[in-house]
Amino acid sequence: MSSDLARSILDGDRKALAKAITLVESTRADHNLEAEALINELLPATGRSMRIGVTGSPGVGKSTFIDAFGSMVVAQDRRLAVLAVDPSSTSRGGSILGDKTRMASLASDPAVFIRPSPSSGTLGGIGRRTRDAVLLCEAAGFDTVLVETVGVGQSETTVATVTDLFLLLVAPGGGDDLQGIKRGVMELADLVVVNKSDGNLALLAKQTEADYRLALHLVRPKRTGTETPVVRCSSTTGAGLDEVLATLTGLHRTMTDSGELAALRRAQAVGQLENEVRASLFARASADRRFADRRADVERAVADQELSVTAGARLLIELLGWTEQSTEAT
After folding, report:
1. What is the pTM of this model?
2. What is the Cα–Cα distance from 152 to 197, expressed in whole angstroms?
3. Which of 118, 144, 209, 293 could form a disulfide with 95 if both were Cys (CB 3.0 to 4.6 A apart)?
4. Which residues contact 301 (CB under 8 A, 6 or more apart)?
5. d(CA 72, CA 237)
6. pLDDT, tens digit (0-9, with 9 covering 90-100), for 170-205
7. Which fold has domain 46-257?
């Protein structure tokens, strides 16, 4: 199955690409094996895109910005894939997938592929399989991949582990918003973009730009000897979008020429491996009958403060036959 699907993806078949992303997002064991084989087969055709993460507080206009910015990207004869991660219900797993309606221009463009995906309760503003989805888009020939996150939060920096460039979108007059944005998000940002810089908000946007420039002086710069650029733009009028694209393209070219990009992607791959091992180990442990039978009792004891968290974790791990002695022996 994977060979036929892989060939279709390499040929740029959008239906095949959508099917493949659904496959890698599946939690079924048989689908996981098929997805692994597919990704391994397509790896040689990946890595040729500019990967951009876009984050910002809810209401800042991420989808509107991507619609306008993406239109400028495809106007330069580039092929664009947008992976829009939506918040999922932790109780029912549902997701409101409305991004295509908010990206009207891009949704009808044949050079654009938009894929709304549920976060499925995964922290960090992206889904567990977002990196695999990026690779699939690259294999299908898309040379620019945008990953839109759920919104700024404590773990929102996770998007920086699957993209080359991390764009923080802010709104004019964001004094309170600036207070709420975590320091880690600011430190990891490659570019801060003040959106909605038009009409009555133009002057306020200019002040907001100054505020963020000052704030960035108070955090550790992402690259030694350089300052994180701050740019104003309007997703409505298009003003400033060319500067945003030029800044990102210039940064990506510099990273490529210096070897920074290759080193970054190698580190990201290793980090993703570690995350996958953790998630897979917990999934296998949860499927173990001994673990499942005792888990509720241990959780109750921890919740009632009859047992410490570390002691509870050790008890559950030992049920799987893993002890400090056994791990030391290996």
Report:
1. 0.86
2. 20
3. 118
4. 307, 312
5. 12
6. 999 865 556 556 677 888 899 999 999 999 999 999
7. Rossmann fold (3.40.50)
